Amino acid sequence: MAPPLLLTGFYASILAVLYIALTFKVIGLRKKHLIGIGDGENAELAKAIRVHGNFSEYVPITLILFAAFELNGGSAQMIHLLGGLLVTARFLHAIGLGKSIGTSWQRFVGMIATFLTMLILAVCNILAMF
């Protein structure tokens, strides 16, 4: 049997690397445009801040759902399937929103896949009670 939360830790670590990359994008733009707080009404920085913010809004709760699923005996195959889906979703969303503040297929697919991952994990965790 694998140590508790080994798989959740694996996907959390991959997502942490993406989070750091998004953070450095914001930092780089702040430095480039000499903006310390807020977005200074700079569209490029505002977009990067939203990409970073959106990630930080959805990933933590999803990782909590992963941890609960894993602790409740969820299958490794399901964790890998959903973990891969979430990593792909967040990468696509960052690309899509990074391109344009409007709609893009990457942004749309990224959010749908994020919501799907959350919903599946939530339902599995609720069903684990019965």
Question: What does this protein look like?
Answer:
- The chain has 130 residues and is mostly helical.
- It has one domain (6-127): Four Helix Bundle (Hemerythrin (Met), subunit A) (Up-down Bundle).
- 80% of the residues lie in helices and 0% in strands.
- It contains four helices and no strands.
- The chain has helices spanning 6-33, 43-71, 76-99, 105-127.
- α1 (6-33) runs antiparallel to α2 (43-71), α1 packs parallel to α3 (76-99) and α2 packs parallel to α4 (105-127).
- The longest helix has 29 residues, at 43-71.
- The model has no long low-confidence stretch (mean pLDDT 95).
- The chain crosses the membrane at residues 6-27, 108-128.
- It comes from Thalassotalea psychrophila.
- It holds the Pfam family MAPEG.
List keywords for this structure.
single chain, 130 residues, mainly alpha, Four Helix Bundle (Hemerythrin (Met), subunit A), 4 helices, elongated, Membr-assoc_MAPEG, membrane
Brief overview, please?
This protein is 80% helix and 0% strand. It has 4 helices and no strands.
Q: Count the domains.
A: 1
Q: Sheet with the most strands?
A: none
**Through-space gap between termini:** 23 Å
Low-confidence spans: none
Main location: membrane
Transmembrane segments: 6-27, 108-128
InterPro entries: MAPEG-like_dom_sf, Membr-assoc_MAPEG
Organism: Thalassotalea psychrophila
